[in-house]
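Here is an idea for our session: we take a single protein and study its fold together. Start from the sequence, derive the backbone structure tokens from it, and show both lines together. Once you have written the record down, we can walk along the chain together:
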Amino acid sequence: MRVIGGEFRSRVLKSVPGLDTRPTPDRMREALFNVLAPRIAGAVFADLYAGTGAVGIEALSRGASRAIFVEQSRAAVNIIRENLRSLGLEARAQVRQGRVLTMLPKIEADIVFLDPPYDLAKEYALVLEQLGSQQTSLVIVQHDRRSNLEKSYGALQRTRELKQGDNVLSFYA
């Protein structure tokens, strides 16, 4: 896995061994950040269910001022920290270990990205409802094509869907 674009383009990132995390594919990250290009510079980016941190690191590489990583797994948190350290990004990042639903009220970000693991698929709606009541300006959800997300969650309205294979990015504003 590598950083797709920006300041750290082509830099290799470490991954968590095993199948507990499923990193966002390179092509999907590239498509995501092509859409976000006009909004990413100077933004605070939250990478929820961060796994390896690849999406948040990509945001930092492309000009986000800060990134907040939330991950429950200690092994994944250690990998995120290693990846940030190898790129010299510790000062622009905050890594929080714990459950997303517990941490969410304390997170203030301009752009929120979430991609829960398969076994936490029920959290899509719970997290989106909570974000919809927090007035978050942009939320991007990566999900399986077969997942049926609502068109709105509180104040959040789906504005766009980007499909790639079995993956979908749903944009809520």
